[in-house]
Amino acid sequence: MTFDPEAVGRLCYWICEREAIRLLKEAGEPPPGTTDPILSAWSFTNVHREDDRVSRWLAANWRTPHADDRDLWFAMCVARLVNWPPTLAELGYAAPWQIASSPSWPIVSRAARSYTATPT
Fold first, then answer.
1. Residue 59 CB partners (closer than 8 Å, separation 6+)
2. How many CA atoms within 13 Å lie on the side-chain side of 62?
């Protein structure tokens, strides 16, 4: 397998610049934290997923408190489908047995189906 050195260089630049932006933001520096016109104008995911806002919320509210739950994998899959902490907080931890008996989860299920593309 061969790699284009220029493409690898651009990827390495993006990784370093994006991480620098995150560190500046966490230090309380004002945006944009870079002189790069694209990185200053657009939003990009963090280099490390664990640094994303939703990942941090999940770690604090679901993953760590339920670390010994054998159904944690299921809750994490559901969490990534919803991917919005205020909604996840309202719904509560998504254990399979809780979803079946919760009045809120069927509403989410119906809403998710309404956004699913179906053949016409």
1. 50
2. 26
Single-letter amino acid code for the residue at 47: V
Residue 66 near residue 45 (C-beta atoms within 8 A)? no
Distance CA 114, CA 41 (A): 32
Give the residue ranges of the chain where pLDDT is below 50: 111-120
Output the pLDDT for position 10.
97
Is residue 31 within 8 Å of 25, Cβ to Cβ?
yes
Q: What's this model's pTM, rounded to 2 decimal places? A: 0.71
Cβ contact 66:75 at 8 Å: yes
Residue/partner pairs of 32-35 with CB below 8 Å, 24 or more apart = none
Using CA atoms, how far apart are residues 75 and 116, in angstroms rounded to an integer? 21
CA distance 34 to 70: 43
Domain ranges of the chain: 1-48, 52-120
